[in-house]
Specification:
The complex is a heterodimer of chains A (about 260) and B (about 260).
Chain A lengths: L1 E14 L2 E14 L3 E5 L6 H9 L6 E6 L2 E2 L7 E4 L11 H11 L7 H11 L15 H14 L4 E5 L7 H18 L2 E6 L2 H7 L2 E5 L6 E6 L14 H18 L4
Parallel strand pairs in A: 3-8, 3-9, 6-7, 7-8
Antiparallel strand pairs in A: 1-2, 1-4, 4-5, 9-10
Chain B lengths: L10 H24 L11 H13 L3 H32 L1 H15 L7 H8 L3 H25 L3 H9 L4 H37 L6 H10 L3 H29 L6
Helix pairs in contact in B: 2-10, 3-4, 3-6, 3-8, 3-9, 4-6, 5-6, 6-8, 7-8, 8-9, 8-10, 9-10
């Protein structure tokens, strides 16, 4: 699997002629097995970049290639999880997870089995027949992730998926995501503004500047694939976190 | 009584408070009529009205009038809903349809349906068709704009989620926009059925031989005030039943809906 972003820029024209440049030319490449985190301050354009990768938005210039093909529309190969809760409220947890499978005319008999597998994997057992309105925020995001994974995308694009969760739930979800990733060997592109989250999750990390976003630096994060929450307290972790904080600070520029 | 913003009353307390208004209104009516403060052919007493209701239903075949009126509202409403829902969903989903129809419908909406009565009598006579046409005008243009608004407000992320899961346009429409809009549409229908009953009275007053309002206009000619009030009460009651129907079915169909 290869997803590459080639000199992508994006300019918005919200009121006709006034233009807002959101992305400076950005190039990056994601390979099979990456957990690639795009980190940047709020409003820097990282979500826009991810949406362009998904095919939900068109770049102003440059292009995104997926497996050598230009990306110009969304497709199920590039699954997406959003920050806002997107469980379909009229469908039970089970039906939500089956949604993609039913769309694509997969083997109907196999669906319940696949759904059960992801319910187990995402820790949703016992909630199969709940409607989203009766679930907590964390549970809703589990459903959203399970639904996307059940569709077997080649790459999972995640737009601040834990951004609206409380700290404990967020940590729990981070660990769960790593567990799921090691089990399914999913390739993930993850957008966040949270430095700790970025360092904890990523094996490759891309730091973006504030708007218009350009790449400040790409780093390899050296903690291996089996990570537990307790590495967050280690000296090594805090050092990396400090380095990344430093990168962001210089990119934003000092206030004084 | 300590007033607090956003405070919810218990069901019992709510019922108690709402009955106060009804009782006061009823008392005022009793005092004015039984007390002889107003002539009874101007304002009949509650017992007079109940007697008139009894006579109407048991001796004067009022039930056929009620059924006639109900069928008019029902048919006019049904035709309006069957057309307004799909058109409204298309308008809310695709800006092309919106541009094509929204300004036009919005313009017609401001014309009162009753203003079309002379024209439609000229074109269609005073039969069933004319009545349905006026009910249609009074319901359709509002409902279609309502539905368009509801479909337009379906969360963008729901549509984008479906698309990234592999949904094509038809699937997004049927599996996301339609189910997401249904609770709102149901509520809009509940409100528009009320408008239907309001229009019905005008329609029947201007030229109908049967129906609840036709009975009322005839009673007015013979100064049978009790029967007019009995008609008003009947219409109010039917409106209440329609409202109740939509509220109950809403709770059955849309258990999943967030409040």
């Amino acid at each position: 699997m290869k997803l590459s972003v080639n000199n992508v820029t994006k300019t918005f024209y919200p009121h006709g002629k006034d233009s807002i440049e959101v992305l400076c030319p950005i190039s990056l490449e994601i390979h099979t097995g990456d957990l690639y985190v795009i980190l940047g301050p709020s409003g820097c354009g990282k979500t826009t970049l991810l949406r362009i990768m998904a095919g939900l938005e068109e770049p102003t210039s440059g292009e995104v290639y997926f497996e050598g093909q230009i990306v110009n529309s969304p497709s199920k190969e590039r699954g997406m999880v959003f920050q806002t809760f997107t469980s379909f409220p009229w469908l039970s947890v089970k039906k939500n997870i089956a949604f993609g499978l039913e769309l694509n005319g997969d083997n109907k008999e196999a669906i319940p089995q696949i759904v059960d597998y992801y319910i187990d994997l995402m820790g949703l057992k016992g909630f199969e027949n709940y409607y989203p309105k009766d679930l907590s925020g964390g549970m809703k995001q589990r459903v959203a992730i399970a639904r996307t994974l059940a569709n077997k995308p080649d790459v999972l694009l995640m737009d601040e998926p834990f951004g609206s969760l409380d700290a404990q739930t967020r940590w729990q979800m981070q660990e769960l995501l790593l567990k799921v990733r090691s089990e399914l060997e999913t390739t993930i592109v993850f957008v966040t503004h949270d430095v700790e989250e970025a360092v904890f999750l990523s094996n490759r990390l891309c730091v973006l500047s504030s708007r218009p976003a350009k790449i400040v630096q790409e780093l390899k994060i050296p903690f291996g694939d089996e990570r537990k929450l307790d590495i967050k307290g280690t000296k090594k972790f805090l050092e990396v976190e400090q380095t990344v904080h430093g990168l962001i600070r210089t990119s934003i520029g000092s206030v004084q | 009584m300590d007033l607090k913003f956003k405070e919810k009353l218990s069901y019992k307390r709510y019922a108690r408070f709402s009955s106060i208004t009804f009782i006061l209104f009823f008392l005022l009516w009793c005092i004015l009529s039984y007390g002889g403060l107003v002539q009874h052919y101007f304002l009949p007493s509650p017992t007079d009205v109940i007697r008139d209701l009894y006579i109407l239903f048991l001796h004067d075949g009022f039930m056929t009038d009620v059924i006639d009126s109900f069928m008019r509202v029902f048919t006019g409403f049904l035709i309006s809903a069957v057309l307004a829902i799909p058109i409204g969903i298309l308008m809310g989903s695709f800006h092309y349809f919106d541009a094509l129809l929204s300004p036009f419908f919005g313009y017609i909406r401001f014309m009162p349906a009753s203003a079309f009565i002379p024209l439609l009598i000229l074109w269609l006579g005073i039969g069933f068709t004319e009545k349905i046409a006026i009910l249609f005008i009074s319901i359709f243009f509002y409902l279609v704009l309502f539905v368009a608004d509801i479909a337009r407000n379906v969360k963008r992320e729901l549509i984008e989620t479906a698309v990234t899961l592999g949904a094509n346009k038809r699937q997004v429409l049927w599996k996301v926009i339609v189910p997401a809009s249904m609770p709102g549409i149901w509520d809009a229908m509940r409100i528009m059925v009320g408008v239907g009953w309001t229009t019905l009275v005008i329609v029947e007053i201007v030229g109908a031989q049967t129906g609840i309002a036709a009975m009322m206009i005839e009673s007015q000619r013979f100064l049978k005030t009790g029967r007019i009030i009995a008609g008003i009460i009947t219409i109010g009651f039917l409106g209440l039943i329609c409202d109740f129907f939509f509220k109950k079915t809403y709770n059955i169909f849309f258990k999943w809906a967030e409040d």
